[in-house]
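Technical annex, item 7. During the second reporting period the consortium partners agreed on a shared format for inverse folding records so that results from different sites could be compared directly. Each record opens with the tokenized structure and is followed by the designed sequence. A conforming record, contributed by the partner at site C, is shown below for reference.
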């Protein structure tokens, strides 16, 4: 092997540094983890085991296990078994933990039992970002993304899926019974093996049917008529593909530095009810009196936009294009102009649609307008196939109209949303790979997501102000 760089012989004696501290540079991210965790009040955040028991075997301090997890998520090592191995061979982790090597069960139980505390740690880092003045623009983008749960698709049941599965089992049982009758008519010695095999299959299908009947009872008792066996909180959700069994993760990201200000894990398949709650969480985290939020069409809901308006939060949400009239080539509602001084709508033909009555629809107070001159209007074929064109107006429609005017004056707002909030989700899914959440139930998944968010924010801040700047900020 001449003309190549040669390594040392394995039997060669080597003088290594005397202490682990010599292996860790002054700007190594493990120093950030160490200082950050040491500055936390873990008891106040709700961690178990901060005060040691007076009897029994001594336990690991929660700070040690928290440092292991933060280091793991910073380095895309989420598995407790992999973290156990890393603690035994990784010099940085040895430095961080003082050569402590917890087993994987201890590491996994810490994440499972301290969900509230882990979420609090994530919020504490956001508070640190706020104190560093990283949230100056007071503009955030909100979005949601679906993440797979540990629950397999075959272990999730809806009414339609359960009914279809029962019909398949009944059909299979009938088919096997027919085959069993045919086997009985054959020569006994030739049919005994077939009959035994068919009887075993029928017995197995009957057992499955009994299990499905138990699931049917659970399904009828479930509020959303859905049951997941492996992860009880996981739900079937629509995606652009075939859909997944998982969770809907919501994030609010600041547009200046792309830091995640607030996040929430839900099992609601739709984003329509998440706007105001996420906006309020973000404003509280940023400690700001004024806040503007931008979201996509999936968040458009009158009640949510009104809640933001009442809370003093300025919303930018485009209206969904779902008008059946426009799809059929007729005038949609936007072609009718409302005159607030006269409380009338003016149609494209210049006629006034006056108020007729009010009604309550889906909990919303709606006003109905129409004109008595529709029958003689030359534009009627382009307007409505009915006797007259009726326009409904929500009692708080002015709030939606005001938001639409803001949207018209800020044409770049949706591009700002896209380049701000979609990147973190792509980062998370790249870190996780093609796998799913490792924990079960909403509490455990929330803790797992909080660790991802904390790792993401730490990396962003270190990129913005540098490792030394972050260490200095935490020390003060």
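Designed sequence (site C submission):
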């Amino acid at each position: 092997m001449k003309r190549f760089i040669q390594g040392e012989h394995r039997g060669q004696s080597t003088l290594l540094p005397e202490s682990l501290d010599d292996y860790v540079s002054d700007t190594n991210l493990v120093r950030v983890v160490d200082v950050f965790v040491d500055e936390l009040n873990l008891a106040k955040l709700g961690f178990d085991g901060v005060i040691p028991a007076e009897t029994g075997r001594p336990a690991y301090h929660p700070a040690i296990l928290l440092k292991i997890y933060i280091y793991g998520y910073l380095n895309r090592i989420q598995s407790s078994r992999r973290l156990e191995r890393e603690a035994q061979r990784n010099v940085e982790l040895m430095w961080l933990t003082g050569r402590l090597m917890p087993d994987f069960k201890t590491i996994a139980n810490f994440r499972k039992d301290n969900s509230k505390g882990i979420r609090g740690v994530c919020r504490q880092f956001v508070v640190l970002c706020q104190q560093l003045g990283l949230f100056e623009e007071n503009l955030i983008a909100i979005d949601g993304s679906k993440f797979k749960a540990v629950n397999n698709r075959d272990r999730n049941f809806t009414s339609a899926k359960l009914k279809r599965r029962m019909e398949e089992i009944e059909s299979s049982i009938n088919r096997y019974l027919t085959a069993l009758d045919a086997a009985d008519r054959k020569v006994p010695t030739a049919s005994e093996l077939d009959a035994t095999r068919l009887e075993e299959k029928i017995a197995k299908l009957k057992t499955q049917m009994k299990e499905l009947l138990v699931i049917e009872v659970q399904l009828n008792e479930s509020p959303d008529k859905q049951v997941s066996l492996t992860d009880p909180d996981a739900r079937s959700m629509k995606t652009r593909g075939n859909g997944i069994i998982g969770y809907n993760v919501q994030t609010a990201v600041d547009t200046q530095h792309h830091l995640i200000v607030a996040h929430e894990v839900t099992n609601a398949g739709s984003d329509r009810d998440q706007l105001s709650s996420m906006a309020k969480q973000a404003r509280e985290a940023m400690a700001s009196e004024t806040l503007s939020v931008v979201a996509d069409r999936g968040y458009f809901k009158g009640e949510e936009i009104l809640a933001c308006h009442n809370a003093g939060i300025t919303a930018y949400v485009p209206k969904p294009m779902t008008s059946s009239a426009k799809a059929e080539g007729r005038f949609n509602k936007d072609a009718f102009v409302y005159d607030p001084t006269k409380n009338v709508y003016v149609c494209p033909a210049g006629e006034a649609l006056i108020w007729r009555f009010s009604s309550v629809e889906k909990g919303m107070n709606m006003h109905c307008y129409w004109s008595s001159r529709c029958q003689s209007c030359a534009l009627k074929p382009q307007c409505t196939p009915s006797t007259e064109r009726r326009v409904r107006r929500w009692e708080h429609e002015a709030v939606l109209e005001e938001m639409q005017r803001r949207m018209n004056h800020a044409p770049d707002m949706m591009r700002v949303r896209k380049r701000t909030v979609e990147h973190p989700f792509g980062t998370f899914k790249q870190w996780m790979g093609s796998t799913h959440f490792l924990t079960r139930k909403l509490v455990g998944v929330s803790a797992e997501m909080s660790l991802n968010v904390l790792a993401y924010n730490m990396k962003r801040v270190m990129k913005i102000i540098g490792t030394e700047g972050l260490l200095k900020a935490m020390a003060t």
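The mean pLDDT is 89. The longest strand covers residues 244-254. All partners now use this format for quarterly exchanges.
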